[in-house]
Amino acid sequence: MKKLFLGAAVAMSSLTFAQQFGIKAGMNVSSLSKDASLSDQKSKIGFNAGVFMNAPLGSNFSIQPELLYTQYGAKGNFTAPVITSGGIVNQEFSSSTHFDYIALPVMFQYNATPAFYLEAGPEFGLSVSAKDKVKNETTGETVAESDNYKDNINGFNLGLGIGAGYYFTPKVGLTARYVAGLTDVAKNRPSGSDAVRNNTFQVGLAYKF
Known about the structure:
By secondary structure, the protein is mainly beta. About 10% of the residues lie in helices and about 65% in strands.
């Protein structure tokens, strides 16, 4: 029994010693859709940034929880009639939806080589802000811009991430991840209508201390 406790203590000490902390940042290419694709609306560019901890679970496996500020949302285009001095004409408009979250991804990583890994795991998000903007592309004017309406959307966001990464050096690496949304962004979805979910592709850099 003493040997068992001693072995467990040694293993825990090794795990603690092997933990690595770091920072990461990158670009989001996100959209809102009724499934796990990016096809429903045009993609919007945003960013993600935060910190992470990487701890080994074995010789080839590790777990990496992260704390990120991440921007989701979508863009769209439409045509609408506008009254002008020359009469009623159709003009082009663009709309953008901005959803910002504090996200906690928990990635389980398989280290195929010391430098290359594959990963998968859940992402838990809390809504920080939700805003919309409509711009008249013909005139270049912003015709509508909403206040923060985050209380009207689902405050919790759940996604499933899959990705990969490659470390050029022991400290600097390139990361890529796709996060498919699992929860509806709407807090009170009308009965009979389809759920709309956040989906995003992320690419960026990571630095281990």
